[in-house]
Every structure is written in structure tokens, then in C-alpha cells.
Amino acid sequence: MAAVRSFSRxxxxxxxxxxxxxxxxxxxxxxxxxxxxxxxxxxVSYELFLGSSPWxxxxxxxxxxxxxxxxxxxxxxxxxxxxxxxxxxxxPTLSAPTPYLYVVLGRIIWNTVSGLLGGAIVFVVVAxxxxxxxxxxxxxxxxxxxxxxxxxxxxxxxxxxAAYVYTRYAGFxxxxxxxxxxxxxxxxxxxxxxxxxxxxxxLLFPPTWALDALRYVAxxxxxxxxxxxxxxxxxxxxxxxxYLAIAGTVFxxxxxxxxxxxxxxxx
Amino acid sequence: xxxPPAVKAKGLTRHFExxxxxxxxxxxxxxxLRGVDLEVAPGEIFGLLGPNGxxxxxLTKILSTLxxxxxxxxxxxxxxxxxxxxxxxxxxxxxxxxxRGLYNRVSARENLRYFADLYGVPPEKRAARIDEVLTWVxxxxxxxxxxxxxxxxxxxxLHLARGILHExxxxxxxxxxxxxxxxxxxxTRKLVRSLVANGVTILLTTHYMFEAEELCQRIAVLSRGKIxxxxxxxxLRRLVGGDRTIExxxxxxxxxxxxxxxxxxxxxxxxxxxxxxxxxxxxxxxxGELTEAQIRAALPGHAEMTVRERRTALEDxxxxxVEEEAK
Lengths: 267, 327
What we know:
The complex is a heterodimer of chains A (267) and B (327). Chain A has 267 residues and is mostly helical. Helices cover 78% and strands 0% of the residues of chain A. Chain A has ten helices and no strands. Mean pLDDT of chain A is 81; it is low at 1-6. Chain B is elongated. In chain B, the strands form three sheets. In chain B, strands 6-7-8-3-9-10 form a six-stranded mixed beta sheet, sandwiched between helices. A four-stranded antiparallel beta sheet of chain B has the order 2-1-4-5. In chain B, strands 12-13-11-14 form a four-stranded antiparallel beta sheet, with helices on one face. Chain B has two domains: 7-237, Rossmann fold (3-Layer(aba) Sandwich); 242-311, 2-Layer Sandwich (Alpha-Beta Plaits). Chain B is 33% helix and 30% strand. Chain A binds chain B through residues 1, 4-5, 7-8, 11-12, 14-16, 18-19, 22-23, 26-27, 87-89, 91-98, 103, 256, 259-260, 262, 264, and chain B through 14, 16, 58, 61, 64-68, 86-87, 89-90, 94, 96, 98, 100-106, 110, 113-115, 117-120, 123, 146, 162.
């Protein structure tokens, strides 16, 4: 029986990924913003940071790139589960033998890929506006950290998805926290620029550490969080691991809770 | 050797709590199930009838592992619905029906493929099985169309296709024909019968009495969270007092005349209903007793009254039981 279940889980993850791609391609609500919004973010961000520092082009790329990736990866992951509620597909999905976490993971993989696509579009748009090769002091480190940032966003996205299973009001909570999270984790500008009292809250989220590390790698002379690049990396990896590790527990508890409360059909 | 029951529930209870208001919230507690005992034999279609809010869907969801009971125990196919849900789920199917519950932006085939994977239908059999169920529910030509283009009847059929995709041994059908046109409803009932012919056990909840009468071997009537009666339709007829229903109607009857009707031989129950100026007395009567002549003789001043006789329908039984419980 165990073999059957693990087989089913892997297939469920792939099935969920496949459905996420098909839904994305079939729904202009996702397709258009995913392709057009990064272009607008890139252009606006380029103008916003123009000439602010010798490395303004990287600030523009990171600011707009994060905005695009954040939306796709973090917000999208929660939203997809919210859609399950709205469509009424949460009940049939949860009545299947596979834990819902694997369905969510499949979607998050797609959201991560589409988030990276948004980030890449921003990079191209800002680079084209700049008209010269983008100065990168450590291109390989930049690329690796770019991917890692999105993994850290996905880790938070899983927890957000659990909230959507837990309650139909998750969208309300996420909408309220949306901008605070975006600013608080340093997506648009470094958290070191934020008031000191807000830093402990920011540090609870892995993207804060990962983004700061990314700026350390990309921008020579960058002064972010006081423990520097390696401290950021350790914190980012550790926190992402913690988020991913607790995701399984959170999901099984949330699944049990919704079966107790009986609010799966609410939307 | 006797086969164990497909469903065995003992003392099932379930309550829901909800809060109203934001600052001064008020807790409301609803008793949806109040000690339900139930047994369904393997291979039968068991009907669950009851008014809105009686607890039918709650019971269906508990038995199909979508809801935990507040108390009591339930086993489906020999597995505990609370502790062995993951082992039970591949063996049961649930059809909740309605307009919702499907991915509208993708095709029917893609919907089925997704759920086939969630239920672990072997990949080498998946495509053939999807074709098979689409053909079986009459959607073979619409399999590649987006679900958002489907009529309600087509969606209902797709729900059914999804419910049987993984060849469950037990199927829970929650109002499968609600909102369907007569032709689609008849086709759905035909499909349900053919499932049972293939050995599937079915628990059917419905508001349509003729549907339950046509399909179900046994029926339970649920009212306000309790099973008030459970038997074959013939057994339920006996329970409410007879196979025959006689309606006597005129422009009013005296209390004494109604009492006289009640005392006629074979009359087990009598209800009165007013229709504008007219009054109808409905009598439940056992087989082979009481004639129209005896009724007319009992009410000599009512030469113009109408007397109609029909076989007691499941709807009559249902209304008797539910109204009795409400009192």
C-alpha cells in the first residue's frame, strides 16, 4: 500500500504541475499580466532608479524583478488554492488519496518557473533600456542566487497556500499583507533602509535574507544587513529549510482541521 | 459466508459551529447529525431522503472522508473513515454534482486526466479508461471541449465520469440529477443502474421521490439529523399504514364526519388539508379493506364529494414521516 501511495504522490505532483501550465496558458488573467506586467515594472523601475547610483541598473533589475517574481511565485501559489475554493475543486481534490501538499507543490514549481520568466523579462527590458551590457561583478553567483531567491519565495508560498486551505478569508489576509510583505522583505529596496523596529519581522522571512545576499553579490560596495553575505546565505538557507520542513506538518494539520471544521465547500 | 456491510455507521454525530459578527461575535451551534446508525449491504443502491438541512450531505461527506464526525464511528468497505481515510479513498468515489467542482478552463479530458493521476490510475491504462468513462456518460464527442462550454447536464455527467474513473467499489451520489432536464436525468439514472449491475454499491441522496423509488432497494429517511425510518419501500408503506391512499374532498367536513372517517375499517392515518374553500381528507389504508361505498355511506350529506384512490407513493410516506418527526 505504501508503494502505491508514494507512486501516486509523485504522479499527483506532476499532474498538478501539468494542470497549472494548462490553466495558465488557457487563462488570459494570468498570461497577460505575466508577460506584460514585467515589461511595465522594468520600465518604471529603470526610470525610478535612473542615475541614483553607479549600479542603478541592478537596483532597477532587482526591484522590478522581485516585484514580478513575488507576484507570480508567492501570491500565485496562495491564489491557486483560493481558486480551488472558488471553483469548488478543493473538495474533490482533497477526497483523492494523495495529500494536498503534493498538489500544491506541483503548482508552486510552475509558479516558480513563471516567476523566473517574469524576472528574466525584467532583466531584458532594463538591459535594453540601459543600452549597454549590465555590469555584473559575479554573474554565476547572481544567477544562482536569483534562482535561490525564488525558492525562498516559494517556501513562503507553500505556507500561504495552507492558509487558503484553512480559511476562505486567506485572500483578505494576503491582500492586507501583500504590500507590507513586498516592502518588508526588501523586494523593492534593501531592508537596511527600513525603520529598525521593522527588521525583526522582516528577518522571519527567508526572502529577506536571500534578497540581501543577492544584492551583496550583484552590487559592489553594497551595505545591507550587518552580518554580510555569508551571514545572509546561512540565514536564507536555514530559514528556507525550516519553511519547507514545516510545510508538510502544516499541511497535514490544516487538512485535518478543515475536515473537523467542515469549511471546504465555503467560498 | 456473509459479506460484511459496505457501510456501517453507529451513533454518528456531527455539529457545526459558526460565528456571526466581528466585534461581538455570537457562536451558533448546529446539530447536523444526532446519532445516526446505518448499514448498507454490498451491491445495493441505498437511498437517503430528507428535507433540506436534514443532514444528508453531512452524512455523505463523513462517509466519504471529507468531514470528520463529532462522535460515533463509521466504516466503509471495512475501513474506518476517520483513521483509515487514505486507504479508503482509492476505493470510493464521490459525486457532489452541481455547476462547481471542475476546472472550467481546461477540457473534460484534462480534468479526468488530472484526477486519474491523483487517484493513481495506472498511466498505461489512463487514456483508455478516460475514453471509456467519457463514452459511458455520453461525452465522447465533447471530451476535448473546455468545461466552461458545457451545459449543466454535461457537467453533471462529467462529475459522474470523474467519480467512477478509478473504478471505485462504493460510490456516493449526492443529488446526481438535481437541475437536470428529464432526458439527462433519465440517462443518469440508467448509468446508476448499470453501475450497480457491475457490482458497485451506491449511497444515493436525492430530493426526487420517484428517483429513489425507481432506483433504491432500501431507503432511509433522515429528518433533523436523525434517521426516522429505514426499510424497503414496501416496508415503509407498511410503516405509514398501508399501500392505499384515498383522498376524500368536498366543501368542508364537520369534525364529527372526519372522526367517522378515521374510524372506518383499515384506516391507519388521516390528514386534512385545506384548498381554498375545499377540504381534503387523506386516508392511508391497508390492502383489501375499505371501499368507496363505505366512505360515501359514512358521509351521507356529501353527494358531490370526490373520492380518489391511488397507491401510496414514496412521497406520501416521506411526508408522513418527516411531518411526524417535526411534531
